[in-house]
Write a structure and sequence with these properties.
Mean pLDDT: 94
Structural class: alpha/beta
Shape: globular
Distance between the termini: 34 Å
Strand order of the largest sheet: 1-2-4-3-5-6-7-12-11-10
CATH architecture: 3-Layer(aba) Sandwich
Order of helices and strands: HHEEEHHEHHEHEHEEEHEEEHH
Low-confidence stretches: 1-20
Number of domains: 1
CATH class: Alpha Beta
Strand content: 15-25%
Largest sheet: 10 strands, mixed
Helix content: 25-40%
Radius of gyration: 20 Å
Number of helices: 11
């Protein structure tokens, strides 16, 4: 009788743990904040905050055409949309927290009702100021933790970042990192070069850029991007404009181009594409988000490699 009761209790406990670790339960438990003009913020906080630890607030602007749930990611089952298995920012966040247990990592998924930050910015004349207010709101929301703020995004999510840069005369010191995951389409020298240079001269600021050669890709019989409109061109332009001021070292390796300063505080990694494939989301899947956060830190390449196998597989919920 006691043995049967023990088996039942273990079964019940295991079922509870699975329920707690399921994608549906976890995702529903995340905080959501609706902002005017169709913006929704979904917040993934650590299970416990330690006020003695530094807090890193990461704003991740969603790519075009994806929901927050799809961007968070989960294990696919029959009938699931394939978009759930291409980014896994949720699992990559779990990997980051497990690797660096000395920091409170908060990830805020920034989405809008058009599923496109470029389209959303076109809709509102004051879109850049609205984006600035979102970042200010988050900084104030977590002010008790004195967070440093990282602005990041994939694909059209880069438009959110450039919108924020446009809204500022100078990038605030509270922004400690800017990370682009194949998202530099909107870079304009006249608008952004001087602001980035001034900001990067501040102590403990970091710019991380990951992209690939999209200029050679043909999709449905047409070039995927214009000669100067893709992230390959725009990222190289940004790197070259920063190279002299920050003594970036340029290397051409077998599979990538690299520009980095000595501390890797500024780093560009551009994947070559001899087979003219579409690597747009693969850059994220292959530990891209982890690489943005850890590049230039003591955790760089610790139990992961950018452009390698998924280091976060065990953290993907189902």
């Amino acid at each position: 009788m006691r043995y049967s009761l023990l088996i039942f209790c273990l079964f019940f406990l295991n079922a509870q743990l699975k329920a707690q670790n399921s994608f549906e339960a976890h995702f529903k438990a995340l905080k959501t904040i609706a902002i005017d003009s169709g913006i929704t913020l979904t917040i993934d906080e650590p299970a416990q905050f330690n006020t003695a630890k530094p807090t890193q607030l990461i704003v991740f602007a969603l790519p075009n055409g994806n929901t927050t749930a799809q961007t968070f990611g989960k294990k696919l089952k029959d009938g699931d949309d394939w978009h759930f298995d291409i980014q896994h920012i949720g699992a990559q966040t779990a990997f980051i927290r497990n690797t660096d247990q000395h920091t409170n990592y908060i990830v805020v998924y920034a989405a809008n009702n058009l599923k496109s930050w470029p389209a959303w910015r076109k809709k509102y004349e004051d879109s850049d100021l609205r984006i600035a207010k979102v970042v200010e709101y988050l900084a104030n929301y977590y002010k008790n933790y004195k967070p440093k703020i990282m602005l990041s995004g994939h694909s059209g999510g880069g438009s959110f970042i450039f919108g924020y840069l446009n809204s500022q005369k100078q990038i605030p010191i509270a922004i400690n990192c800017i990370g682009f995951l194949d998202a530099t389409y909107g870079y304009e020298s006249e608008k952004h070069q001087a602001k980035l240079k001034t900001w990067l001269k501040l102590k403990n600021t970091s710019l991380q850029v990951i992209a690939y050669n999209d200029s050679v890709v043909v999709f449905n019989g047409k070039p995927l991007v214009s000669p100067t409109g893709g992230t390959w061109y725009r990222s190289k332009l940004m790197a070259k404009e920063l190279q002299t001021d920050f003594k970036l070292i340029h290397q051409e390796l077998t599979d990538r181009l690299i520009w980095e300063d000595q501390r890797k505080r500024i780093a560009f990694c551009l994947i070559k594409n001899p087979e003219a494939k579409i690597y747009h989301t693969v850059l994220v899947e292959k530990n891209g988000f982890i690489a943005l956060v850890f590049k230039g830190t003591r955790f760089e390449t610790q139990q992961y490699q950018f452009w390698g196998d998924r280091a976060y597989q065990q953290y993907i919920l189902q």
